[in-house]
Prior knowledge:
Strand content: 15-25%
Number of strands: 10
Strand order of the largest sheet: 2-1-3-10-4
CATH class of the largest domain: Alpha Beta
Shape: elongated
Number of helices: 10
Structural class: alpha/beta
Radius of gyration: 23 Å
CATH architecture of the largest domain: 3-Layer(aba) Sandwich
Amino acid sequence: MLNDFMKPSRLLAAAACFLAMFVSAAPAHADLDKIRASGTLKVAVYDDLDPFSNKKGKGIDIDFAEALAKKLGLKLSLLPFPAGETLNDDLRNMVWKGHYLGYGPADVMLHVPIDLALSAANPQVKIFAPYHTETVRLARSIKAIPKFDGVSSLAGKRVGVERISIGAMVLLGEDGGKYGNDMKIFPSGTVALEALKAGDLDAALANRSEIESVLHDDPRFDMREIVFQRLPRKGWTVGMAVRADDLALGKLLQDATDEMFASGEMIKIFAKYGVQIVRP
């Protein structure tokens, strides 16, 4: 008589377990071999995220992608894409599955938030290599708002925000919505900041990187932290994502990123666009 382990049901279960282990382990090297054979690293970047990437193919993440490909001895193939409804959509479309319209997946996606909840919701990907921490800041015209004593100083002032952004949400909900009537909505924080420079706004809420890249220490404007109850003061950190089983590629990308920080290359890439890097 077969012992318990040798019963057909146990044999099938053991075989399935072994096969799962083999399948999960093999792609880590197989995918890297395919990438090397193609000679190209496919990198997904957002197509409208100044100063990191834009439709003109310029930005911090574009230069970062080029440097990563070079360090791996590969050519760069950019896959610019529009942001989906959620980050889960972006990770599915650009990292582990591909978009139903036919583009993607890439080998790696840049500018992915380092977030435990996001990682837990997307076990198909590995999020790693944090390279910048972003925060929301207020840019104000010193002439229009000579003295700033907190959010109340924005009452009656024309404040620009990006639509569907953290800045827009917190300002709209502050003090019972008293700032909503004077809030001006723009396609992006960069566009709002350009309006501020042109004198069409008194202030703008935007990401610090956007403010630095647009205003370039213009003495007419002041950038400062602004405290909202619902705004994370420490900001959020971004890194990159690969498929969860693509560990070999992830290790190479992590090592390349570490080398770029150690050599000062990352600082130079950010400085090219007027942005001060904040390493997590």
